[in-house]
Design a protein that fits this description.
heterodimer, A: mainly alpha, two-stranded antiparallel sheet, B: alpha/beta, 2 domains, six-stranded mixed beta sheet, about 25% strand
Chain lengths: ~325, ~525
């Protein structure tokens, strides 16, 4: 007897989705031709952030873990690449790979130590790690340049052809970001992702079904750190200058906000979240100085803005922007439990 | 002599002074159906947890196939071939029915991360294998047509079947069923019993906890009886049935309370709550199809019916959790069907939900006090009000003395029956004008059910209005003033309970002794 059972999504939506994806690719491919170079550079940064946020989304949406150390892992990737290139002359390609692995290794250690922590306790532990790492970046000034930052990080080149100009970087970074999204999407739709989600619903039941929940947690955490490390390495090479102030707690929060705003119901939410948040911040940078004569208050305004944004998302869009497109599967109210 | 698949030797497990499992020794033989029975809080689920590795015994040995498994983690024990279901269902509500079962498939238990990312052919093949296995299991329990539904949207009975199917997908050698029949309708019980018998015929060893004694006697080869953590008897069903200690511990003194039958004074009373032609949809399911209900002030109205008849939806609709698509609900002549749950609760209609909704990490005392907060408008509680709350708590403790003994204990560590008492008390603290109770007898031993229903009768005598939704029709009809029978979202019958008790249609459908 032939039985076809669609897991996850009915076929009708699938067709629409592929159409949407195609449209997205066409828009993305032609985008740098339509906007000025400033906006192109913003788009490069969005792509770089996106690589980190994919990992955050995997961790939060599917494993149910909130990590506040993602900016630290991002920083590990960036500084590993930068320090190796500046102090030892190691190729930034190799630096990026080593930075990624170092991030993953640190996550493995941190994840193993915190294997029994759940909920807020896990978040607090990762917060502590993030703060300590930021202090290390500032204090180890011999290598990292301390709080004045590390400059002179070389860019990337393919053989004799160097990757120069925002447009080239745009295509390069987005190719990687989309690849990352694609890999993560495969992962969450596989048995691996199903096991991870099962543990999110009932750890007792998944363990009773033979699922080693600790292993999945750790794997998800390491994957998210690998993505963050990769993103950091690319960031260092693109900017050629990095400073500890970028890799702080605020940035970790920003990554979380991006993932939540985009919507944790789908891995694509991370992409949506990064685009929306970054464009909003850029708009803020443009217009706040016009409203307020005192230009030094821009940073404070940004913090206030994020605070308000987070509250607003939680109240009005608990499932994020992607949540609006996902049909509610049950009309049982959340508070009915 | 048959071989023992599972052996307990002098196993003890205690929690801060409370001994849950007390120095127990017993065996489960290969290919047999063995039942573990005993009153609520006897340590049955704790025994299961010692087998599956959720608890590590303080002393003694648990052996499976002759191998010591005391200190293994739950997932290792599952891999050895011991599968379980849960008393308070632990389905993966965020997954589809099919996916729920696929989680248990061996093929996809440890997928390689890299190959999953790249969708290598091996992964796809494993996934197909798991899906095939899951479909087979669904067919076995008769849920094939629900495969794509989100598990959360299944009815209670279907969720029990899903748990069984999921456990079977582990391809276990030993299957532990924790109250597989509790909360099931008569038809569903039949189905589950047939399934257990089929599995036994296929050679599976089954160890089960169950309150439904007549079914236990019918299907078990061997019965072990626990009371207060200790084994008090074991043997063949007939031996256990005639054992004095068992009868005393399990059934209590055989003095059935006689309740005064209500007179037909319904006309003199004033309705406090009236439902007119209520239609409610849950996702796409038309759960209530035009329900009319009249609840008089100071009366206890029972709504009985099988699983999936729409009983919980009915209470949820009254409580404002689901908004009806059609019809009106009058509360003292004011239409209220459009109001959100919190407004309804503030008007004095309080729901004690099925499965109780405990805050596991609050103590009994804190939980009760929490129940009083919704009725206080300000967050600052005046001293006078505080004193009143303390006095009321004392009254509640008189109603349920067991709770007083345990008032410093965490709610999560209470037995099922005590949690139900706490849930009722919490509802009462809000000073309800109408108290809605959803299946208070669910999963409780007869003795406890009797105690709780006795208290409900007492509350009714003190002029509380109560709507009692129950599957245990016999018990509910004994204390009710008026009753409705719900079937497929419609009121099928209504009347005085003593008349309904005589009605053969009711007897056939709901009053079977299971």
């Amino acid at each position: 007897m032939e039985r076809i059972v669609q897991v996850h999504k009915p076929a009708a939506i699938g067709v629409k989705r592929w159409g949407l994806l195609l449209l997205g690719i066409i828009v993305a491919a032609t985008l740098p031709l339509m906007v000025n170079s400033y906006l192109t550079s913003v788009l490069v940064i969005i792509g770089i952030y996106c690589i980190t946020t994919v990992g955050v989304s995997l961790l939060m949406g599917f494993a149910g873990l909130v990590s506040l150390a993602q900016a630290a892992f991002w920083g590990v990737g960036a500084y590993a690449t930068g320090v190796m290139a500046v102090s030892f002359g190691i190729s930034p390609w190799l630096g990026i790979v080593l930075g990624m692995l170092l991030s993953g290794l640190l996550a493995y250690g941190l994840g193993w130590i915190t294997r029994n922590l759940n909920g807020h306790y896990f978040s607090l532990a990762t917060l502590g790690f993030g703060i300590v790492l930021n202090i290390v970046l500032i204090e180890e000034s011999e290598w990292t340049g301390g709080s004045s930052g590390l400059s002179g990080i070389p860019g990337l080149s393919f053989g004799s052809m160097s990757l120069s100009g925002d447009t080239a970087w745009y295509y390069f970074v987005w190719a990687i970001a989309l690849l990352g999204l694609f890999l993560c999407r495969n992962l969450v739709h596989s048995g691996w992702g199903r096991n991870l989600r099962s543990m999110h619903a009932s750890q007792a039941a998944s363990e009773s079904m033979g699922i080693h929940t600790g292993r999945y947690r750790l794997q998800a955490f390491v994957i998210s750190a690998l993505f963050a490390g990769l993103s950091g390495g690319l960031y260092a090479c693109y900017m050629s200058f990095i400073s500890p102030a970028v890799f702080n707690f605020d940035m970790s929060i920003k990554f979380v906000i991006m993932a939540v705003l985009g919507g944790l119901v789908s891995i694509w939410g991370s992409l949506v979240g990064v685009v929306v948040v970054t464009l909003l911040v850029e708009a803020l940078r443009q217009y706040v100085p016009l409203l307020l004569q005192d230009s030094s208050s821009g940073g404070a305004i940004e913090v206030i803005f994020f605070g308000v944004l987070l509250v607003a998302i939680m109240v009005y869009l608990p499932n994020g922007i992607m949540g609006m497109f996902h049909k509610r599967k049950s009309n049982v109210q959340v508070n009915a439990k | 002599m048959t071989e023992a698949l599972l052996e307990f030797q002098d196993v003890t497990k205690s929690f801060g002074g409370v001994i849950a499992v007390n120095n127990n020794t017993f065996q489960v033989e290969k290919g047999k159906v063995v039942a573990l029975i005993g009153p609520n809080g006897a340590g049955k689920t704790s025994t299961f947890n010692c087998i599956t590795g959720m608890y590590t015994p303080d002393a003694g040995e648990v052996r499976y196939n002759g191998e010591r498994i005391n200190h293994l983690k739950p997932h290792k024990i599952a891999e050895l071939g011991i599968a379980r279901t849960f008393q308070n269902l632990q389905i993966f509500t965020n997954l589809s029915v099919l996916e729920n079962i696929m989680v248990a498939a061996k093929e996809t238990r440890k997928p390689n991360v890299l190959s999953s990312m790249l969708r290598l052919p091996g992964i796809k093949a494993d996934e197909e294998q798991a899906q095939k296995l899951a479909l087979d299991m669904l067919e076995l329990v008769g849920l094939t047509d629900r495969a794509e539904v989100l598990a959360n949207d299944l009815s209670f009975g279907e969720q029990r079947l899903l748990e069984a199917a999921r456990a079977l997908a582990l391809r276990p050698k030993l299957l532990l069923l924790d109250e597989p029949l509790s909360g099931l309708s008569r038809e569903e019980v039949k189905g589950m019993v047939a399934l257990i018998q089929k599995l036994k015929k296929d050679g599976l060893t089954i160890f089960l906890i169950e309150h439904d004694l007549s079914t236990v006697m019918e299907i078990s080869d061997h019965i072990i009886v626990l009371d207060f953590g200790s084994k008090i008897a074991e043997g063949k069903p007939d031996e256990v049935r005639s054992n004095e200690r068992v009868i005393e511990a399990y059934l209590g003194r055989d003095v059935k309370k006689q309740y005064e039958a209500p007179e037909s004074k319904r006309k003199d009373r004033e309705p406090i709550l009236t439902l007119k032609d209520i239609h409610t949809y849950r996702s796409t399911i038309h759960a209530l199809k035009g329900v009319d209900l009249r609840i008089d002030k100071g009366s206890l109205v029972a709504v009985i019916g099988a699983n999936g008849a729409g009983k919980s939806t009915l209470l949820g609709t009254i409580a404002g959790q689901y908004s009806p698509n059609q019809g009106t609900i009058y509360f003292e002549n004011k239409a209220m069907e459009k109001l959100p749950a919190e407004s309804v609760s503030r008007m004095g209609i309080n729901l004690v939900p099925e499965r109780r909704g405990m805050f596991a990490e609050l103590t009994v005392e804190e939980s009760i006090r929490l129940g009083a907060y919704p009725r206080l408008d300000s967050w600052m509680i005046p001293a006078k009000e505080k004193r009143r709350i303390e006095e009321e708590m004392e009254q509640m403790y008189q109603l349920f003395p067991r709770l007083k003994e345990r008032r410093k204990q965490l709610a999560g560590t209470l037995s099922g029956g005590e949690q139900q008492m706490l849930a009722i008390v919490r509802g009462l603290m809000a000073h309800p004008r109408v108290l809605l109770l959803d299946e208070p007898s669910l999963g409780l031993a007869p003795l406890i059910v009797e105690e709780i229903f006795d208290r409900l009768y007492q509350l009714k005598q003190s002029d509380m209005t109560i709507i009692l939704v129950e599957q245990n029709a016999k018990a509910a009809l004994q204390i009710a003033d008026y009753a409705y029978v719900l079937e497929n979202g419609r009121i099928k019958l209504e009347g005085l309970p003593q008349h309904l008790l005589q009605d053969s249609r009711i007897r056939d459908a709901y009053l079977s002794s299971h």
